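Q: What would this chain look like folded?
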Amino acid sequence: MNEIKMVDLHGQYLKIKNEVDLAIQHVIDSTAFIRGADVREFQDELSTYLGVKHCIACGNGTDALQVAMMALELKPGDEVITAPFTFIATVEVIRLLGLKPVFVDVRPDTFNLDPEQLEQALTERTRAIVPVHLFGQCADMEAIMEFAQINDLYIIEDNAQALGADFLSSDGSKQKAGTIGHLGTTSFFPSKNLGAFGDGGALFTNDESFGKRAASLVNHGMQKRYYYDHVGVNSRLDTLQAAILRVKLQHLDDYHRLRQGAASWYDTTLSDIEGLQTPVRSPFTTHIFHQYTLQIEASRRDKLKQYLQEKGVPSQVYYPVPLHLQRAYADLGYQEGSLPVSEELGNSVLSLPMHTEMEQDQLAYISDHIQQFFKA
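A: My prediction, written as structure tokens:
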């Protein structure tokens, strides 16, 4: 059996090596390393894949979130509602822009923002909501959009972990994650489902004015060269990364199917274990399994992690300390017990190896050892 990895980027590369190498060589030959043709073509191809009018590539997923908020012209002191059980970038950019993050708890089954808690977080300063599509499936966008429309709020979807997932509305319509709100953002960090060979990100929108402004903001606020309409930033996806992403975008749906196949194996072999909860799927979204995350009794989670490590199986805790309890955000006034679901998840979740190169003997080895742990 080959070594088990949390993410096997090298194995994935070997399967598309010729395509990727040719794409890289083409960029080198062109010497158009910044804003080359592959960037424009990747933006067009990703727009088509998502079914959205505008796609603006940028330097990374964190920048994508920041530029989205800048495009909405949010002002210092405005409040932005989001969830604390996620990566720091979601909240980091809110503070960097002088905005105030307001946290609501997540659902205990799907780990996504709980729409039923939005009302209690609403104030006269609330301007936007940032739902995070965590681990590969959508938050309840129908309920969130309804609340936003009633209260005249913007929606920015943090779609760094669910690019390509489908949201299924109650009327039967289908939209890609990240294309439902006013703006969506994503990351092309190498371990993402669509990952570059370095940093990268993108914003997408169906709104003409937001799209035009975002395209200017990522390039120093320019629309015409040397004419600056906005105070912008320098956040560009370089041409080499765009060329690689163009290749990988063609394989993205196959990557999802491979991840879903591995998830099905885990489900079948682990779902009957007492004291362990396999991932819950929401009925209104597909799940593309950026992570396969278990919930385990808090007293046993770390013991299982250590046991798996001894057996050569990596695992990871995302996220051990929710954002409202992080030292950098202590001035917001949240205390332990403020958001109990997120706090409990920090003590009970454990993510298993999940990637496109999972082999049958590896999956069997992992599930067999988890079963043995719980039988002991």
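Residues 9-249 form a domain with the Aspartate Aminotransferase; domain 2 fold (CATH 3.40.640.10).
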